[in-house]
Design a protein that fits this description.
By secondary structure, the protein is an alpha/beta fold. It folds into 2 domains: about 100 residues; about 190 residues, P-loop containing nucleotide triphosphate hydrolases (Rossmann fold, 3-Layer(aba) Sandwich). Helix content is about 60%, strand content about 10%. It has 13 helices and 7 strands. A 5-stranded parallel sheet has the order 4-5-6-3-7, sandwiched between helices. The chain has a two-stranded antiparallel ribbon with strand order 1-2. Helix 3 packs antiparallel against helix 4 and helix 6 runs parallel beside helix 7. The longest helix is centred in the N-terminal third of the chain and has 30 residues.
Length: about 325
């Protein structure tokens, strides 16, 4: 998967190319109607080279004559365009973004048009993975946890989930590349994926690069990369390791092999070392994580991740 930044740059390059081709088409159309305009355009285009030759020869009078000639040609060109119902402004390149001319860069910084494109691409990716547009903080209903005692832990589900809900909203609001990593764990159907997606949506909106996916899908992509079944410009592992926020959903549901176990360790360890935040959601409890992935993964999670233990009854069943 080419990074969303690269995809956005490619989109801008296509827009820039299309805008320049359209400007060229408009100019050629007018030149076909008025051959004199074509002669003037070519003459004006060659004026720079003529000026250089005159300067090298030290012909100051020639330079002055060329300057006057150019001014006359430019005035004649304006007259011809006006007679054709057009203007110099109409023949300019009309870029989608007049701030950066569809380059995506302004003063060595990314233009807002590029940032917005990346944001839209990330949102689109998110919605192909899960119903992200249906999973926001606004539509997370705490009423499903009211008057429920968690059958596993005996805690008041409404009190616990209210705390988790407000923690997650604050996490998204204050997110930075230095934010802590989280592990959302507990039985199935308690809202872990919903709150993970809500965080992802909010963080994307702030302009950060988020990679979201089920552990099964993301590990499958890395496996294809390692065994040469992806195009050369696809690099899911690099994007997963370097994203501002990685959300690894449903860890433990994937088919376990020595490769997947080693990759889970590499992802968690690498992002721990670089200080980049990761959110893991899982139906496994801590002892089950240790059994499935070994002590190296287990120790890094308990030592570096803030635990959020979900409580309640299966919300999907309650909704049904």
């Amino acid at each position: 998967m080419a990074s969303n930044v690269e995809r956005a740059k490619q989109i801008l390059a296509r827009r820039r190319d299309a805008a320049e081709r359209e400007a060229m088409r408009r100019q050629e159309e007018l030149e076909d109607l008025c051959p004199e305009l074509r002669v003037l355009d070519r003459k004006l285009a060659q004026a720079g080279l003529r000026a250089v030759k005159l300067a090298v020869a030290g012909d100051t009078q020639g330079i002055e004559d060329l300057k006057n000639e150019n001014l006359a040609d430019q005035e004649r060109r304006r007259e011809l365009l006006e007679s054709l119902g057009s203007s110099e402004e109409a023949l300019e390149v009309h870029y989608n973004c007049p701030i950066c001319n569809d380059t995506g860069v302004v003063d060595s910084h990314y233009c807002d048009c590029l940032k917005n494109l990346v944001k839209n691409l990330q949102s689109g990716d998110l919605n192909t993975q899960a119903p992200a547009d249906q999973s926001s903080f606004a539509n997370f209903d705490l009423e499903f946890y009211r008057n429920i005692t968690d059958p596993e832990t005996g805690v008041d589900a409404y009190e616990r989930m209210t705390q988790i809900y407000y923690y997650c909203t604050a996490y998204a609001e204050d997110f930075s590349r230095e934010s802590p990593s989280l592990i959302l764990y507990g039985n199935t159907g308690l809202g872990k994926t919903h709150l993970s997606l809500a965080i992802a949506n909010a963080v994307i909106e702030k302009g950060f690069h988020v990679v979201y996916g089920s552990a099964h899908n993301l590990l499958s992509q890395i496996e294809k990369e390692h065994f040469g079944r992806l195009n050369s410009d696809d690099s899911p592992e690099a994007e997963i390791l370097n994203a501002d926020l990685l959300i690894l959903d449903d860890l433990g549901a994937e088919f376990s092999t020595s490769f997947t176990v080693s990759m889970v360790y590499n992802i968690i360890n690498t992002r721990n070392l670089t200080g980049l935040p990761t959110i893991i959601s899982t139906n496994l409890w801590y002892d089950e994580l240790a059994d499935k992935y070994g002590n190296r993964v287990y120790s890094r999670i308990i030592g570096n991740y803030t635990p959020l233990e979900f409580a309640g009854r299966d919300v999907r069943q309650l909704k049904n």
